[in-house]
């Protein structure tokens, strides 16, 4: 699935790094019908992983109840300015994407 890059912002303050991510994905539940009355197949992100300098800081399992173009925000301790944050997702059809940003 071709998708737009994730928008990632990571800011460190007082030893805590806050990461905000806007993902681009259709997130179909498998319960909606198209104009012909046929069920639109489920297509959603089922795994999200975030790393700081190759150390996993977040792993999340998602399902079809997450909205289209999901927004994710989380905090963790141990990051510092200049560190690389990478966020990856995998969907139920085998699609995936990884993007990176630098902590400010």
UniProtKB/TrEMBL annotation:
Annotated stretches, region: Disordered: 78-104
Compositional bias ranges of the Basic and acidic residues kind: 80-104
Sulphur oxidation protein SoxZ domain residues: 8-101
Pfam families, sorted: SoxZ
Protein name: Sulfur compound chelating protein SoxZ
